[in-house]
Specification:
Layout lengths: L3 E5 L3 H11 L4 E6 L15 E2 L12 H8 L7 E3 L5 H13 L2 H29 L8 E5 L2 H16 L5 E3 L1 H7 L9 E5 L3 E2 L2 H14 L3 E4 L2 E7 L2 E7 L4 E2 L3 E4 L5 H6 L8 E10 L9 E4 L4 E6 L2 E10 L8 H14 L14 E7 L6 E4 L6 E5 L5 H17 L16
Helix pairs in contact: 1-7, 1-10, 4-10
Length: 414
């Protein structure tokens, strides 16, 4: 039975939801505040599909490492101190979940979500004709301690049925013959993939329109509630929209809208930067993560994207030149064929990742509102988990039973 569905948010998550709903004959409208997606996390992200990321953001050692980085203006992590009850609550919950038990309890769920999302990414690339590069990802390490730590992660991955290979320098050269790498070794994750977010977005939009979906430009300001249901969605311009099912998939902006239905959704914006080299001198074949630099490197066609930082800073989207310089310098340290001068006069992109305090997305019906679905909180894995999120939400709307237990992802779990 087809339904009328209104989706707030047209980034990769909202588009993926719309794609699966429209392809199963539901009537879909997407409201997006910025048609170019320049203000979202979708257009400028690292473009990685990462089954290797089965450890949640909230994990042992994250807090102690973050405290060490706090005083370094070029460090890859920064938490801006401010008087904010919501930030204090988020920090408390994050600390509470940064345990070995939490990692153990969630790694199979993250594995299942990621592997199924990867399968859907492959299916989408074939059906919608956009490139998906299935050559794996290199986690590159410059220190023995870093390599040992990542080798332990690879061991755990093997117990979960994931593929991972510990590589010395010779093996790195075999896997990556195009670019010189300054690293002691690394881990090759052959199941990881990468793509151009722009290609992905364009393919989804084209298919949604072809299947009758509609796009509306506007910023949602208010949700009208009537007898436990969201009756109307009102934009700042005063336009009113209604549908049988409402889906909030607007990233960090979902937090304020959720408050209107009595849902205090713990979530903080994790600011990240990227810079894209239009004509790289030696474009790598594989995407990579730089262990000590906390930087992502992604070849996208003839361009090369360098991404990094995690700044917990509210909704501030200003660019810290020193922190951006830290990202570029870390990249050049690992890839010595490049220098910071290669990045001069390039416009950086900035986006706010929606970060939950336990490192898991919010996915499911809002408590006490049976026509409102929340889909956000994917942190750095929005694009990676977008297809499985879209499929799971489409199942919720259609009343289909999912193979994946969504109880741990409940928007009301806190």
């Amino acid at each position: 039975m087809s339904k009328e569905v209104l989706i707030v948010g047209g980034g990769v998550v909202g588009l993926s939801i719309a794609y699966y709903l429209a392809s199963t004959n539901h009537s879909v409208r997407i409201i997006e505040r910025d048609d170019s997606l320049a203000k979202s996390c979708s257009e400028g992200n690292a473009g990685m599909v990462v089954p290797s990321h089965f450890i949640p953001l909230a994990a042992p050692g994250v807090i102690s490492q973050g405290l060490k980085w706090m005083l370094n203006p070029k460090s890859p992590f920064y938490l801006r101190p401010r008087l904010s009850p919501s930030l204090a609550r988020w920090i408390w919950l994050f600390t509470k979940h940064s345990t070995k038990r939490h990692v153990s309890d969630t790694q199979e769920l993250l594995r299942d979500l990621s592997l199924e999302s990867r399968r859907l990414h492959v299916e989408l690339s074939k059906n919608e004709d956009f490139p998906l590069i299935q050559k794996g990802l290199l986690m590159l390490c410059q220190s023995n301690a870093g390599l040992d730590e990542e080798a332990q992660v690879a061991k755990v991955a093997h117990t979960l049925g994931l593929e991972a290979e510990v590589c010395d320098q010779n093996r790195l050269k075999e896997l990556e013959p195009n670019a010189k790498i300054n690293a002691r070794g690394g881990i090759w994750w052959p199941q990881d993939c990468h793509l151009s977010p722009k290609d992905f977005i364009q393919a989804l939009r084209h298919s949604i329109l072809k299947n009758g979906g509609e796009f509306t430009l506007g910023e949602v300001e208010k949700l009208e509630i009537d007898h436990g249901k969201v009756k109307d969605v009102i934009t700042k311009s005063g336009k009113i929209y209604s549908a049988e099912t409402i889906i909030l998939a607007g990233g960090i902006d979902t937090t304020e809208l959720a408050k209107q239905v009595g849902l205090a959704l713990p979530m903080q914006g994790g600011k990240g930067y990227s810079v894209t080299l239009p004509e790289p001198t030696a474009n790598p074949l594989l995407c990579s993560l730089l262990k000590e630099g906390r930087v992502a490197v992604t070849p996208m066609g003839g361009t090369l994207r360098v991404s990094g930082t995690m700044e917990i800073c509210g909704t501030d989207t200003s660019v810290s030149k020193r922190r951006l310089r830290g990202v570029i310098e870390a990249f050049c340290n690992f890839y010595p064929q490049y220098s910071p001068s290669d990045f001069e006069n390039l416009e950086p992109w900035v986006g706010l990742r929606p970060c939950s305090p336990d490192g898991l997305p919010y996915l499911g019906f809002a408590p006490q509102h049976d026509n409102l679905i929340i889909a956000t909180g994917h942190s750095m894995m929005g694009l990676s988990l977008a297809p499985i999120t879209g499929k799971l939400v489409a199942d919720l709307v259609s009343g289909n039973k999912s193979k994946i237990n969504l109880a741990r992802l409940s928007p009301g779990r806190f």
